[in-house]
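Section 3.1: Structural characterization of target chains.
Under the original work plan, the team committed to producing a structural model for every single-chain target entering the pipeline before any wet-lab resources were allocated. The record below documents one such target. The sequence was received from the expression subgroup and is listed exactly as submitted; it comprises 302 residues.
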Amino acid sequence: MQSTRPLKVLAPALTPFHADLSVNRPAFIAFCRWLVAQGAGLAVFGTNSEANSLSLPEKIELLEALVDAGIPASAMVPGTGLCSVPETVALTRRAVELGCAGALVLPPFYFKPATDDGLFAHYAQVIEAVGSERLKLYLYHIPQFTGVPISCTLIERLLKAYPGTVAGIKDSSGDWANTERMLREFPGFEVFPASEALLEKALPLGAAGCISATANVQPGAIAQALQAWGTPGFEALQAQLKGVRSLFQAHPMIPALKHVVARAFGDEGWRHVRPPFVPADAAWAEGLCAQLTQAGFRMERP
């Protein structure tokens, strides 16, 4: 069943670095402004933001800088999940204070095995410590990175305990059966697949849109496809989106995205990544750019 909510695309915005790997704040602000102008929301400090290579002070400073620059907090659902409750609370609380639309919260991912009871206790402590009716918490399910799955049993328990606060989930598992189950079992819960390639299957079941790595490079095209959902033009737009997504997925995603942004924006500084990543290798990166051009991909410059 299709959702009556406005469909949204959110970009886990790439984080640009200087040559010394300090954050390039002006470039970050400019990039986020461009994403919003293209019709995307901002899931800053997501996986493709290299979030777990950023410190808590860096994240708070960048979030405040975006708001100070006039980028609407209502367009932001920052990633605020860290392994410790105090740090997760600090970043989530600041996001709420700034007026962000929500907070995307990873489970604590170091100590394993993590039981549903333990994960419930973690999320409950975060919600109660933030202590705000304005908090909209989005769970972040990416077990291939965290090793900590968010089960449907846990979702059901959190929804019963914190209705109106636990608002949705990003499902980055890559397991369509899991995404489909969430969509069917929790109507009204905002489920975001992690790829625009799944929109044709997810939207009829009520998906809220998508939070996608490749929204960094085709935000306008994804926004256009969401607007076209239910019209004859959607199928062609979806096919184009899937083609571009598949080309990026054949390579290390973050270095690939940054290489393409560097080419499109004419700024080689965008190729910088923090370890353990290394910059895109020219041997495959230039081949990727050629394939994208052949596929009709063009990235709008700011």
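Strands lie at 8-11, 41-42, 103-105, 137-141, 166-171, 190-193, 209-211.
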